Amino acid sequence: MSIHKMIALHPDVGEDFNETLATAARHAMFCAEMCTSCGDACVAEAMDMAQCIRSCLDCADVCAATGRLAIRRTGQNIETLRLMLESCARVCELCAEECARHEHEHCRLCAEMCRECAADCRRAIPTVQ
C-alpha cells in the first residue's frame, strides 16, 4: 500500500493526481522517521551531539507537518503548501549539513535522506496549483 494510492482515491483528485507532490509527501513522511531515528541514535553517542540532535528533531517535525499538508486534497491552500515545501527543503538541507559533519553511519543515512527529501520538495513546488 502506498500514499500515492490513497491520494489517488480521494474524491477531489480525479484526473488531477500530482505524482510529484505525492512523492514529496511520501519522502517527507519517511524523512521525519529517519531524522527521529538519527536524533535518537545521536543521544546514545559518547560525544556531544546536541546540535545534531536538535537539527534532526527540528527537521523531523517540519517534514512530518509538510507531509500531512501535502496529502490533504479537500479544498486548497496553495500558498501555504508551497511555503511548507520550501521550508521543508531548506530545513532538510540544514539537517543534512549538520549530519554530514559526523562520521556515524546513522548520520550519513540521515543526511542522504534529507537531501533526497529536499530535492523532491523543490521539484514539487512548481506543480502545486
Automatic annotation (TrEMBL):
InterPro entries membership: Csp_YhjQ, YHJQ-like
UniProt cross-references to Pfam families, sorted A to Z: Csp
Name by which UniProt lists this protein: Ferredoxin
